[in-house]
Each structure stands twice: as structure tokens, then as C-alpha cells.
Amino acid sequence: MEKKRISEIIFRSTNLKRFISLFVVSIIIIVIVTMFSTTFFSYSREGFSEISLLQYNQAESLYEAARQPYILYKNFNSTTYFMIKNFENKVTYYQLQIKITKLSQAVNSETPLATTECYLMYLNHTYEKILFPATKQEKQEINAFTGSYIWSPTNVTLYFSSQFESLLLGENGVKIVFEIWRFNTQAEEFSYSGIFAFMELFVIG
Amino acid sequence: MSRYWKVRSIVLLAMLFLSLFLVNNYSYAQTEQEALTLINNANEKLIEALNLLEEIPVTDSEAKQLTSEIDSALQLIQEAKSKTIENEYSVAMQRASEAIVKLDNVIEQLEEVVKNNKQKNTILFSLLGVFLALLTVIVLYFYLTRIYPWYKMKKVENYERLEIVYESEGVLNNGEKKD
């Protein structure tokens, strides 16, 4: 009896009705604001790119980030593989620049190696590819070597020609730098991404 | 044969070889120029396709397939560039032309996707507009039928609670006498 009276009081209370209507209206407003913000203002989710230097293990038929060459013979070519993954959250047009420089040369993510500090290993051939971004599920994958977001392991022939001799003055080795450049559609040119990998090799022969 | 005729035939032969060499060189340079022009055209189309691709969200079902098609066109352009360096101009021109055809196709598809996306957005925003207008009407209705009468009622209630105190001569409201 008492309960019924209390519920009746609550139900008939005009203040409560007003409170409920205001609550519903504010919920609707919040939903609309959220919808607008997600539709009109697309948040730029900064991503990243990944480069790996690999070797092919013929015995186990797999690529591994191990057993990299550490000697470069003047008369013999050496091989390595690179792999790039797109975690940029957008379609990215990549260019890989392979440079050979002095062993003591510092490499940084702010500026690429200047032409005065190095030689381009492949002047007449550039490695370029357009990659689709990795999905949420693909980002969780480990040991993946193929997919629309992966520049599958690609072999690069490393060599030491006579024109690189000047790099050896006072040193017995070289640094081979793999720089990732990304295409900027606004500027219509490639710009340095700040992502790189390098190998240090002793030169013999 | 007299010496005159010998000299004359040698000069004629030399002229013939020279003209052949020049014609050959000219056509060689022309072919190289044609190959470079085609590669340049293909590059321009590639940039156009990339710009259009940026306009569609990566979640779009066709985005992945179109990206892979643009990439295969890029590989053809790369091959055309290599062949130009190797002086294989006819192969270079063929690859560049293939890339152009491929990119034209992709651009057409991308334009269609962008157009469809714009239409979808127009419908979505129109619905949002209608929804907002409806919400405004509801809020106004609530305000006019519930909130404003309640406020008015409260105001009247407050006025009802007011007590009129008349100030008698020589006596202040608190009962003290005036000086």
C-alpha cells in the first residue's frame, strides 16, 4: 500500500517528468554532436612504416632477420632482402633509396644522406611501390611476409665498384643505408620519411 | 674509269651514308622523345589516380583492389623507364601505353566511387538536417508546453508568498521609531 503510494507520487511528479524529458533531450544532443564530429572532422591517426633487412634461409624456406653479410668483397656481389610494411593508416606510395657511405657517417631521421656524403647504389633503378594500409586485424599479425600492406621481401644486390673507393679513405668498411621516402601528392614529389635501416660491412679485396 | 668519276662516286657514297646516318639518328631521337613523353603522361595519370584515391576512405570495399591496380600500373611505368635507359624504346613505349590504359580505367572507376560517396554523404547530411529540425521542434514544444508554464507557475507561487508590509508614520519596518 505504502509502495503504491510512493510510486504514484513519483509517477505523477511533474518535476520528475521534466527531469526525464531533459535527460532524453540531452542524450539526443550528445549523440548528434558525436555523429557530427566523427563525420565532419576526421581525426588524423598518425601511423608509421616499418623496414626490415632479411636473409633467405633456404634450408627452412623462410626469411629471417639474421645472418646478414658483414663482409663485402670488391669482386663479388652480395645479396640481402628488404621488406616494408605500411602501418600509416592510409595508402602510401613508397620509394626506397639505397645509399652507400663511409662507415663513420652518422645517419639520422631528420635529414636524408646528402649526395655529397654518399653514392646512390642504383642510379638508374628506383624501388617504388604503392601499399594499402594494414587493417586492425593485420596489425596484430607477426611473421607475415605477404599481404596488400606488405612490400614482400625483395632482393638487392650489394656490390662495391671502383667509384666507391673514395669512401674507404682511412677506413676499412662502408655503411649501406636503406632510406624510405614517401610520395606527397600535394607537393607532387617524394619526401624523406625519417625511417631507415643500415648495414655495416667490411670491404675486402 | 677516270679519276673524276671515282672521286664523284666516293663523294656520292659518303653523302648517302651521311644522310642515312642522320635519318637514323633523327628517328632514334624521335623515338626516345616519344617514349619519354608517354612515360611523362603515365606519371601524370598516376598522380591523378593517387589524388582521387585519397578522396575515398580506406574502408571502402573497392579501395584495396584499386590500389593494387594503380601499383601494377606503377610497375609498368618503372619497367618503361628501365627500358628507356637500356635504349629499348619500342618496349618502353609499349609499357608506358599499357600503364596509361590501365590508369585511365582506374581513374574512371575512382571517379565513379568518389561520385557515389558524395551522393551518400548528401543523403546522410540531409537526414541529419531533418533530424535536427525535428529535434528543434520537439525542444521548442517542450519548452512552450512544459518548461515555460512551470516557470510561470513558480513565479506566481513566489509572488503569492510575498507579504505586503505597509510602513506606518514615524515607525520603521523593523518597528523602531524614526528620529
Share of helix of chain B, binned: over 70%
Distance between the termini of chain B: 159 Å
Question: Can you count the helices of chain A?
Answer: 3
Low-pLDDT ranges of chain A: none
Number of strands of chain B: 0
Structural class of chain B: mainly alpha
Q: Could you report the average pLDDT of chain A, rounded to the nearest whole number?
A: 86
- Distance separating the two termini of chain A: 104 Å
H/E element sequence of chain B = HHH
Helix content of chain A: 10-25%
Strand content range of chain A:
35-45%
Secondary-structure-based class of chain A equals alpha+beta
Percentage of residues in strands of chain B: under 5%
Mean pLDDT of chain B: 87
Q: What form of chain A results from the Cα inertia axes?
A: elongated
Largest interface: A-B, 28 and 28 residues
* Approximate shape of chain B: rod-shaped
Any descriptors?
heterodimer; A: alpha+beta; four-stranded antiparallel β-sheet; 3 helices; B: 179 residues; mainly alpha; rod-shaped
Describe this structure in words.
The complex is a heterodimer of chains A (205) and B (179). Chain A has 205 residues and is α+β, with helices and mostly antiparallel strands. Chain A contains three helices and ten strands. In chain A, strands 3, 5, 6, 7, 9 and 10 form a six-stranded mixed β-sheet that branches. A four-stranded antiparallel β-sheet of chain A has the order 2-1-4-8, with no helix packed on it. By secondary structure, chain B is mainly alpha-helical. Helices cover 83% and strands 0% of the residues of chain B. Chain B has three helices and no strands. Chain B has helices at 3-55, 63-85, 89-161. In chain B, α1 (3-55) runs parallel beside α3 (89-161) and α2 runs antiparallel to α3. The longest helix of chain B has 73 residues, at 89-161. Chain B is rod-shaped, with a radius of gyration of 44 Å. The model of chain B has no long low-confidence stretch (mean pLDDT 87). The chains are: A alpha+beta (205), B mainly alpha (179). The interface between A and B is medium-sized, with 28 and 28 residues.
